[in-house]
Amino acid sequence: MAMDAISVIRTKRDRAALTDEQIDWVIDAYTRGEVADYQMAALNMAILLNGMDRREIARWTAAMIASGERMDFSSLSRPTADKHSTGGVGDKITLPLAPLVAACGAAVPQLSGRGLGHTGGTLDKLESIPGWRALLSNEEMLSVLDGTGAVICAAGDGLAPADKKLYALRDVTGTVEAIPLIASSIMSKKIAEGTGSLVLDVKVGSGAFMKTLDDARELASTMVGLGTDHGVKTVALLTDMSTPLGLTAGNALEVRESVEVLAGGGPADVVELTLALAREMLDAAGLKDADPAKALADGSAMDVWRRMIAAQGGDPDAILPVAREQHVVVAPASGVLTRLDAYDIGIAAWRLGAGRARKEDPVQAGAGVELHAKPGDPVVAGQPLLTLHTDTPERFEYALEATQGSFDIAPAGTEFTASPVVLGRVD
Ligand code: URA
């Protein structure tokens, strides 16, 4: 049947469901360059405004998978388990989690991304380790995975190429925050990657794409349904992203904190979420008797980390980069810190140089924000609350604008209940 982009756009604009043929055609034609970016942008906006039903989302995802190659880990002797976060501020969990789950017996093929906007990217963080390489061939990836049990690297160009084009387009056309588009983007990559099981960390709150628990639950159940339909055992945790995870947001700052966790220390929320996700991954991989808390405490997760970093050219003993300039924000009053906003801190870290405004921009390894208190902590007027780090001090003023309204301090004695780290589970 002859197809054209305008009739596909009109169908969704007029709130009708796209047919299977329309979906297959438009994804294929866009990947080949026959449908223009401006036409796909219009269709994305119609999808954002008018939604898609479950059949359309499933077909859209299948068409994105079919746009490229599928990987195959069936030669590995261990069961595969992967994790994907929908993106947040200070979300360094992949760094301790992948070696931890590998130390417990699973193979962890972690294809990760770069940060854009206010959310950080795992590859940008790891690239602050001197020598570490994100780009591996499929053969190299399999060899690191086989040799160490875990690999964290960039998805190759052949994997879901439709998503690469679509995501870049959505990012600059205000169409990221659409549940059908987020679900199909994440799940097409994960299904094409060929993992046997998948744990999704769906973030909720100011620093996440999903601002409410209801939206996060809908996104989670859409993705769990897609994974299950493709034979991937998939579960999702809904986790808090109203305040940054841990005490750092920024590339080398977050690597340092992750190594603290692997050494048996680190902030309580990072440890709690790492262990919760590790237990889910090990369960989904059929390794129910593994004990991730023990693997953190006895150094076996750290051993895998060191081997994994070295296998990708990195020096696990190298001194990490430190930004040339620091600026301290002090508490303006004494009392209890009742709010420290994830989005504002993410924007500040980004403006300091930890993130990029355009895809081709470089990031500063040492830039970011260090937090000296978390919601619920007592603070004293004049004590350091945040330290801003950058190589380029002219960025401080713009970053400080973002931090200005980022926190609330209530009088001492004010009752305060911190949000739990894990807010829900969908399977
Ligand atoms: N992460 C992705 O890979 N895709 C999205 O659309 C959002 C977050």
From TrEMBL:
Catalytic activity: thymidine + phosphate = 2-deoxy-alpha-D-ribose 1-phosphate + thymine
Residue span(s) of domain Pyrimidine nucleoside phosphorylase C-terminal: 336-410
Source organism, top-level taxon: Bacteria
Pfam family, one: Glycos_transf_3
Gene Ontology cellular component list: cytosol
GO molecular function list: 1,4-alpha-oligoglucan phosphorylase activity; thymidine phosphorylase activity
Keyword list, A-Z: Glycosyltransferase, Transferase
The EC number(s) this enzyme carries: 2.4.2.4
BP GO terms, sorted: pyrimidine nucleobase metabolic process; pyrimidine nucleoside metabolic process
Subunit-structure text: Homodimer.
Summary of the function given for this chain in its UniProt record: The enzymes which catalyze the reversible phosphorolysis of pyrimidine nucleosides are involved in the degradation of these compounds and in their utilization as carbon and energy sources, or in the rescue of pyrimidine bases for nucleotide synthesis.
Recorded family membership: Belongs to the thymidine/pyrimidine-nucleoside phosphorylase family.
PANTHER family assigned to the protein according to its UniProt record, in alphabetical order: THYMIDINE PHOSPHORYLASE
Protein name: Thymidine phosphorylase
Organism whose genome encodes this protein: Streptomyces bauhiniae
